[in-house]
Amino acid sequence: MSEPAVDPAAAKRAKLILRTKVGGTLAISVAGLLWAASLPAGVTLTLGFAVVLSLWSILEAARMKIFGGAPATVGAVAAVAYGAWEIHSNFIARDVLALPDAEQALAQGLGLALLYSAVVALVVRSAAAVTKGQLLWRLGERPGFGGLVFLVALPLLALVPIRLVGGAGGLAVYLVLAKIGDIAGYYVGSTMGKRHPFPNLSPGKTVAGCVASLLVGIGAGAGFVLFGALEGARFGVLSGVALGLVVNITAQAGDLMESGFKRRAQVKDSGTTFGPSGGMLDLVDSLLLSAPLVAFLWPLLFELPS
C-alpha cells in the first residue's frame, strides 16, 4: 500500500508554525536573560551569558570539524576565558564609564581584549599541538583556527560593552535589530520569495527576504529613536537608521558566513538543540559579525550614560 502524497503547501505551513512556536519560546527565554541583565549586577551577568554562548558555539564548531581538531578547540576555549578576564578587568572592575576618556577607553579595552585573547589562544593551541606530537610549523596549515577564534569564540564577548554603553535597554534593542530582520526575511522569503541570490551557499535565502530584512531593520532602528527606546542619539533619527543598517547588513553577512561553515561541514544545522531553528550557532550567527562592530560604533552614534 503506497503512502499518501505529502502536500508541499501543508508541509510548508507546518514548518512555519513549528518554527514560530520554537521562536516564541526562545523569545521568552531571551526576555528573561535581558531582565537579569537589567539587575545591579547586570554587566557581570551579561559577561557570564556571553561566555556560555561562546563556549556552546565552540563545541558545535568542534563537532563540525572544520576549524581543526582538539588543539584548536582548546585554544579557542582559552581565548574566551582570557577575553572574559580582560573585559572584566578593562570594563567592569575599572568602572570604565566613570573615566574622563570613556569612549577611548572602551575602544582600546575591547581591541586589546581581542588581541591579547588571540595571542593566548595561539600559545595554548601551540602547546596542545605539541602534546599531540605535532610540529609547530604545522600550525600554519590550519588557517581555520583563526576563523574559530575571531569568528566564533570571541565576538559574543562584545555583548558586554554593548550592555555598558547602551544599558539593558540598549542591549535589548541591539538583539531585536539583529533578529527582527532575520524573522522578516524568513517569513517574506518563505511566502513571496522567488529568486535565490546564494543558491550554493544558502539556498533558502531569497532576494525578497534579504530586501525585507534590510528595510525592517532600518525602520526598526529609526523607530527605536523616534519612540524613545534609544536615548542620546547624536544625529537624531539618523543614528537609529545607521544602527539598523549596520546591524542588519552584518547580521545577514553573519548568517551567510555560518551557512558557509555548514556547507563546508556538509551539515544542515549546527545542532539539533532548538529543533527547526537548529543549534546555538544557528541562533547567534547574526551576532558574530555585528556585535564587535556595534560595540565600537555605539559611542559614535549615541551619547554614553552620564
Describe the protein's architecture and organization.
There is one protein chain. The chain is mainly α and 306 residues long. It has one domain (8-301). 72% of the residues lie in helices and 0% in strands. The protein is built from ten helices and no strands. Helix 6 (159-192) crosses helix 10 (290-301) and helix 8 (237-265) packs antiparallel against helix 10 (290-301). The longest helix is centred in the middle third of the chain and has 34 residues, at 159-192. It is globular and about 60 Å long. The termini are far apart. Mean pLDDT is 85; it is low at 135-142.
Salient structural properties:
mainly alpha, 10 helices, 306 residues, globular
Short description:
This protein has 306 residues and is mostly helical. 72% of the residues lie in helices and 0% in strands. Helix 2 (42-64) runs antiparallel to helix 3 and helix 8 packs antiparallel against helix 10 (290-301).
Unreliable stretches covering 5 or more consecutive residues: 135-142
What is the succession of H and E elements? Answer: HHHHHHHHHH
Query: In percent, how much strand structure appears in the residues?
Result: under 5%
Shape: globular
Helix content: over 70%
Name the quaternary structure. single chain
Helix count? 10
Q: What structural class is derived from the secondary structure elements?
A: mainly alpha
Number of strands: 0
Distance between the termini: 73 Å
Overall radius of gyration: 20 Å
Number of domains: 1
The major beta sheet can be summarized as: none
Mean pLDDT rating = 85
